[in-house]
Design a protein that fits this description.
Length: 626
């Protein structure tokens, strides 16, 4: 297996299906305020609080030295101290606000030693740092195998599989987070340590420690969670004739981390650590996370969740960490219609399609007649606000990359949604002519207004054409139905390839543009300005590969080339722990940035691998299209 760009600077991530997680660096040195051994959602899957920040471990009073990391279903770490080798395995049981850490301690010969654990608590929202407000109290529970620490009514438990001695020594531990410092965010805080847990042991020995919220967690067995993860992996290989590999295994398990429970159904977290479940991100990610992996019931529940919150034809852009709902998106509803279509091609779930048809139809009518700053114009194209597309960063109340009033991918998504509705209406024996007539208008307007001879303008207005060279035209070209002639699509693809393609995704702006920002770093304001003005987004490699292969007629040679040169560098990004980052800098060496693991980054790699490279099309595609 070829190596990737990562060394020991990566961050591992473990999740529990509720929105909670554990995450740090391989050496367990927390570098962000988002890091922690137990981060729990108080209103699942959001309002996540860091409960247990870290745990210092010592043998005979000496700290452990980090030796290595491996990922094989679970995160496994190697340490050494005072002649003792420590193997450490960490996991979160599914649907439990708990983290279990298994230890195996060995030496060259049998010997006695004292193992010391110093837990550090913080009890605060993951966006903030500790302000030391609120009384932290501590009590022993469960005799000599449990410790309980509480703050403002929230309780955290440490439970041991073997008896321990507790030495109460309350103190404040200073913490510094250099990655937050780089972002010009609050980066210092005080952690609370109640004292030390001592366990007298003889090598070789094993023990387990469980960290949990609100109630003790005493089931230390890994077997149930092991079976669940093995089932995810085994089902994928049963459905796909691939040779098992470390990188595919990592991607399968990574995809599972984004799928969370909400309101009795399923949702998709956009990215860890700080994003909640966003509509646009969930819908773009849905084929890669849930359709190619054949998790059809989960996919259906995601669709039902977002449709249940539709307002005036607008699918939520997402849910906030504070529990609010955002409707600031022009494209989420259009992605939604396409994803219902994709789900239908995979499942032939006609009953579901009929049951939601009126709501799908209402989206089209709402966009035609006007809703939330969105309206179809006389040219059949959609007019919308500056900040309603995926390029939505704002600084000082001004969009960093204005996209209104007519963005290129929005018009293509509108056309695709209408064509999809036409096809599904015909299949259900409903009237399809209404959708077909609007498509005629788009076909008469789109290329005439957007194509400049070499590529497609990024947006147009009443009296201007914005010819910024951006990747949004590739999104437009990658859709199932697009109002673009083949020769124009090929010119645009070549232009994008020459100016925007990197080994890790597409730049969001050409380097020739004076607004181009090649480094994604600095304060949040500086990063927001760079976010869509040159920064590379790995997820965009998916639409690029799809477009390239469509225009190459999916030849064997083109698919092999795409796999080796376009997809493989991103697949290797998933090693060693399954994470593919949100963004990276536009200039070499393409420094990683943003969230450590982004749903659509992982999803588009899996989708491309299955649908585009291996040509595993939806089961009912041929039947439906015929």
């Amino acid at each position: 297996m070829r190596s990737n760009r990562r060394s020991t600077d990566f961050e591992w991530l473990e999740t529990n299906g509720l929105g909670g997680y554990a995450s740090s660096t391989p050496s367990f040195v927390n570098k962000r305020k988002y890091h922690g051994l137990l981060v729990c959602p108080l209103d699942p899957p959001v309002n996540r609080n860091v409960i247990v920040s870290n745990m210092d471990e010592r043998i005979n009073g000496k700290k452990l030295d980090f030796h290595g990391y491996d990922f094989n279903l679970f995160h496994e770490f190697s340490f050494y101290s005072d002649g003792i080798y420590v193997k450490k395995r960490l996991f979160m049981p599914y649907n439990k606000n708990a983290t279990v850490i298994d230890y195996r301690l060995e030496s060259f010969s049998e010997r006695n030693f004292r193992f010391e654990l110093i837990p550090m608590f913080v009890f605060r929202h993951m966006y903030s740092v500790s302000d030391r407000n609120g009384e932290i109290s501590m009590e022993l529970c469960g005799k000599d195998t449990g410790l309980c620490v509480s703050r403002d009514g929230d309780k955290a438990f440490i439970t041991s599989s073997v008896p321990f001695l507790f030495d109460e020594d309350r103190k404040t531990v200073k913490a510094y987070y250099p990655l937050d410092d780089e972002r010009k965010e609050d980066c210092y805080e005080d952690l609370f340590s109640p004292g030390s847990i001592f366990i007298d042991m003889k090598s070789p020995s094993t023990l387990s420690i469980a960290l949990s919220m609100n109630e003790p967690y005493v089931n230390f067995s890994i077997e149930e969670e092991k079976k669940r993860r093995e089932a995810l992996k085994d089902e994928f290989y049963r459905l796909h004739p691939y040779k098992e590999s470390d990188v595919i295994n990592a991607l399968i398990l990574s995809a599972d981390r984004f799928v969370v429970n909400r309101e009795g159904g399923k949702s998709v977290m956009a990215g860890y650590h700080w994003f909640a479940d966003w509509g646009r991100d969930a819908l773009i990610s849905l084929p890669g996370l849930l359709l190619v992996t054949r998790r059809f019931q989960d996919a259906k529940e995601v669709l039902q969740l977002f449709l249940s919150h539709v307002r005036d034809g607008v699918i939520p852009n997402g849910f906030t960490e504070e529990g609010g709902i955002m409707y600031n998106s022009v494209d989420a509803s259009l992605w939604f219609i396409d994803r219902v279509y994709r789900y239908f091609l995979y499942t032939n779930d006609t009953d579901f399609l009929r049951s939601i048809w009126d709501k799908l139809d209402s989206i089209i009518y709402s966009y035609m007649n006007g809703t939330s700053g969105i309206k179809m114009d006389k040219d059949s194209l959609i007019s919308h606000g500056d900040q309603l597309t995926w390029m939505d960063a704002i600084v000082e109340d001004k969009p960093c990359s204005p996209r209104g009033p007519k963005a290129v991918e929005v018009q293509a998504l509108w056309y695709n949604a209408l064509k999809v509705m036409e096809r599904m209406a015909g299949y259900l024996e409903y009237d399809a002519e209404f959708y077909r007539k609007i498509c005629y208008g788009i076909e008469a307007s789109f290329e005439r207004k957007f194509f400049n001879g070499n590529y497609f303008a990024d947006r147009i207005g009443e009296d201007f054409v914005d010819n910024s060279l951006r990747p949004n035209q590739i999104i437009a070209l990658s859709l199932e139905y697009t109002p673009v002639h083949r020769e124009n699509a090929m010119r645009a693809l070549e232009t994008v390839r020459n100016s925007l393609l990197t080994p890790f995704g597409l730049r969001t702006l050409s380097r020739d543009d004076p607004r181009y920002t090649g480094r994604y770093r600095g304060s949040i304001v500086e990063r927001d300005r760079a976010y869509h003005n040159g920064t590379v987004w790995p997820w965009l490699m998916g639409p690029f590969i799809t477009t390239y292969l469509k225009l190459s007629n999916y030849t064997k040679e083109a698919r092999e080339f795409s796999y080796e040169n376009l997809l493989m560098p991103l697949m290797l990004e998933a090693l060693p722990s399954g994470n593919i980052e949100e963004v990276c800098s536009g200039d070499e060496p393409f420094e990683r940035g943003g969230c450590i693991s982004q749903a659509w980054s992982v999803a588009e790699v899996l989708r491309c691998l299955c649908e585009d490279i291996m040509l595993e099309k939806p089961a009912y595609a041929s039947q439906f299209l015929d």
